[in-house]
Amino acid sequence: MRQPRTSSLVKRVAVVSTFSPRQCGIATFASDLNDALCRELGSEAVVVAAINDREDSYDYSSAVRIEIDEADTASFRRAAEYLNLARVDVVNLQHEYGIFGGNAGSHVLTLLRELRAPVVTTLHTILRTPSEHQRRVFGEVLERSTLLIVMNEYSKNLLVSVHGTKPEKIVVIPHGIPDTKFRNPEDLKEEIGLSGKRTLMTFGLLSPDKGIEDVIRALPAIAEEFANTVYTVVGVTHPHIRENEGEAYRLSLRQLADRLGVSANLVFHDRFLSIEELTEFLGATDVYITPYVNSEQISSGTLAMAFGMGSAVVSTAYPCATELLANGRGVLVPQRTPSAIAEAVGGLLRDGDARKKMRQEAYRAGRKMVWSEVARETIRVFKLAAVERESVHGRAFELKSLKDRPIELPAFKLSHLRRMTDDTGLLQHAVFDVPNYDEGYCVDDNARALMLVTLVDYLGLGEGLHVKELAAKYMAFLWHSFNPLVGRFRNFMSYERRWLEKIGSEDSHGRALWALGFTSNRSKSARRSIVARRLFQDGLPAAEAFTSPRAWAFALNGFDEYLQSQGSDESVEVLREELVDRLIRSYHLNSEPDWRWYESIVAYSNAIIPYALIVSGRSMGREDAVAIGIESLEWLTAIQTSESGSFSPIGSHGHYRKGCECARFDQQPIEAFCTIKACLAAHRVTNEPKWIASTQSTFDWFLGLNDLGQPLYDLGSGGCRDGLHPDGVNENMGAESTLAFLLSLGEMYLAESTPFSAPVPLPDKAVVR
Q1: Which of 122, 325, 557, 655 could be disulfide-bonded to 330 (CB atoms 3.0-4.6 Å)?
Q2: What are phi and psi of 92, to 5 degrees?
Q3: Residue 406 — pLDDT band, cuts 50, 70, 90?
Q4: Any idea what the Cα angle at residue 242 is, between residues 240 and 246, rounded to 5°?
């Protein structure tokens, strides 16, 4: 690798990462790296931007200059602004998918797109078989990084072979470890109460992928020969596991030890140990074990620390262990094989000379891994990156995204939605921001609300917003609304919980199918997905008899989501083909050169019809459907654009009939949501910038760039006003309007966090009809 010019000085660097005292392996790594960098560069030369996963923050040291809310893209943008103003020479991003919000950690792209300084990214996870979205997000992280740091040759080869990264962009620097003396375990055992014992150890945050149960299953065979064996498991349960499952995993390990009769050989230290305490425990360990079950794990701080301190290590053969323990520096065993663990541990406990030699080899190799060496090598990489400052700063990285909008995206605020929701479901209307009980409930709004909270959770933005509780209520309402006697959803319910009809409208049934298909595909709750699929299947047959183009479109949107989750379903695919053909026939029947539409009237939720053809045609390989969807959407956006260029939807007071004047008012928020969704779909299949421009101007309609120059979204209450009248804004904030804004906001977040990609090609099976 080329050497930096002598004039290339690094006076200030920024580390972007989780950070201690947050209990997270990346946080520990970043904190140790920060300390080592400060020792080399001085404490004022290093600033930390800490990623938070909770509202109440952490008790950070003075090293942390700015905090980033992982769920809020605006927070990432503010951090970029701060680092730009701080004039840092290099930004070191510690990358792990799970520590950034958004699908596949996509929120971090907001930060990277705004930074002026070159970025050096340290990669803690590199997937061999990433999903399409993971590949796209990770690909932009790699592209926007000047240089990349990995911790072993395996990771470098993976970046080159799987992700197409140029080798000269990658630097291998091992995982850092504290610099300790080589100690005899027998000298330390007495200090921690293990005198006379054969000691085994695993440490780190507890989670099922650690494989600790396999060591416990190996203990009977080990204890049969070495009865004085003690297996010490050090560390708290991973915070995210504890939040969702409590201590169920740790309890299951204790119960397993009880059943196998080795409870006396197992000791838990359920706390987060300091480096000093860990050094004592590791120093007193005869055999350190990492029985991890993740075959793609490319780094392990616990393994690095144990190895570098001179422990004799038995490990499953995950990539970083295979490389680190090569040439007799440790013993590798197959994953999920307790018998192999027992044999390897037993062999080392029997042969003290072999164990000592292994420890000496590991300790000798570990001297290159101490934090002082890692910090010096990392600074060398920073200097190399700083050489690229001019080319990075001047590079035209064209990203057709929404990041340049003139108005900041607000954070999700569901306070008004919760205010409008009771134990039955979501109420329809409000007087200003006060729920109007007289108007009761409807399936239309509860279906939209189910989609919203599912989307918020899918985006990773649901922390503290009660989305799981809300999703259960909205799903329950849809379940209760289905009338199995006629196979249809009812729509309207009074506040006294009385259904006001036996059969709802075709549109409400179609909206319910859309919400259920969406939930089956996007929900993080496996149980809720199952419930959604079951109810979707119950409601499917009725869609065949629908006569409304909008009902066809709503149902098609549900079909597309449902089939994404299921892969295939002949009954759904056949009906999808039929409804797409109906929309196309309707278009050909009604359209003329100056009327590119499916009916003789452009009424409500208009853009959802071209949206349905675009997404359905894309999934089916129907170029004719996609083409008609794009053509009709172009016409619709043209007639809904004012002379000033702002979004001006067709008014609900008269709509727009062929041969008549277009109603200018009352403009409804639902039209903006449908238009945003359709324009983004058009952009995904064409990559034409005009669709991004239309999306942005439509969203800005909510914020005041409209015919009246007045905002509809109320930041204080979290509600959205019901529309634009000729004489002003309708101050009532009903469910439909509020949901239209929040769903639009979700689409904007989703679009912002999705990296640039080429136009999405149609499948090879495309058929033109």
Answers
A1: 325
A2: -105, 110
A3: very low
A4: 150
DSSP line for 162-213: HH---GGGEEE-PPPB-------HHHHHGGGT-TT-EEEEEES-B-GGG-HH
Give the whole-angstrom CA distance, residue 138 versus residue 124: 12
The residues facing 91 across adjacent strands are 14, 119
User: In this structure, which amino acid lies at residue 429?
Assistant: H
Which of 4-8, 181-185, 328-332, 371-375 shows the lowest per-residue confidence on average (mean pLDDT)?
Answer: 4-8
Q: Which residue has the tokens 């995904």?
A: 684
The residue with tokens 């009424």 is 603
Q: In terms of C-beta distances under 8 Å and separation of at least 24 residues, what long-range contacts does 647-650 make, across chains too?
A: 647/672, 647/675, 647/694, 647/697, 647/698, 647/700, 647/701, 647/705, 647/706, 648/706, 648/707, 649/606, 649/675, 649/701, 650/602, 650/603, 650/606
Distances (CA, A) of 721 to 421, 432, 711: 17, 8, 8
- At residue 431, what are phi and psi to the nearest 5 degrees? -105, 110
How many residues make up the chain in this entry? Answer: 769
User: How far, in Å, CA of 623 to CA of 629, rounded?
Assistant: 10
Task: Please list the alpha-helical segments (H only) found in 435-548.
Answer: 443-458, 467-481, 506-522, 526-539
State the pairing for strand pair 656-657/601-602.
antiparallel
Tell me the Cα Rg of the chain.
30
Q: 253: closest CA among 274, 272, 231, 273? A: 231
> For the segment 279-308, what is each residue's pLDDT rounded down to a tens digit?
899 999 999 999 999 887 888 999 999 999
C-alpha separations of 101 from 156, 166, 766 in Å? 26, 28, 36
Give the bridge partners for 430, in sequence order.
435
- As given in the structure block, the two tokens for residue 753 are 């966090």
Q: How many CB atoms lie within 10 A of CB 452?
A: 27
Residue 229 confidence (pLDDT) above 90: yes
Q: How many helices (H) and strands (E) does the chain have?
A: 28, 25
Residue of 321, 362, 314, 318 whose CA lies nearest to 340 = 314
* Residue 638 phi, psi dihedral angles, 5° rounding: -65, -45
Instruction: Give the integer Cα–Cα distance in Å for 590 and 571.
Output: 29
Alpha-carbon distances of 707 from 161, 389, 655, 685, 725, rounded to whole Å: 54, 44, 17, 30, 10
The three state secondary structure string of 588-644 is HHHCECCECCCCCEECCCCCHHHHHHHHHHHHHCCHHHHHHHHHHHHHHHHHCECCC
CA nearest neighbour of 320 among 207, 162, 205, 151: 151
CA-to-CA separations, 51 to 101, 165, 242, in angstroms, rounded: 10, 27, 20
Closest CA to 17 of 25, 26, 9, 4: 26
Task: Report how far residue 189's alpha carbon sits from residue 120's, in angstroms, rounded to the nearest whole number.
Answer: 42
Three-state SS at 474: helix
Torsion angle, alpha carbons of 279, 280, 283, 285, to 10? -110
What is the C-alpha to C-alpha distance for residues 51 and 101, in angstroms, rounded to an integer? 10
Q: Does the structure show a pLDDT above 80 at 764?
A: no
Instruction: Please check whether residue 489 is in contact with residue 551, taking contact to mean a CB–CB distance below 8 angstroms.
Output: no
Q: What is the pTM of this model?
A: 0.60
Beta bridge partners of 333: 316
Residue 519's pLDDT band (cuts 50, 70, 90)? very high
State which amino acid sits at residue 336: R
Helix, strand or coil, per DSSP, at residue 390: helix
- CB burial of residue 107 (10 Å; 0-12, 13-18, 19+): buried
pLDDT tens, position by position, 91-126: 999 999 889 988 789 899 989 998 999 999 999 999
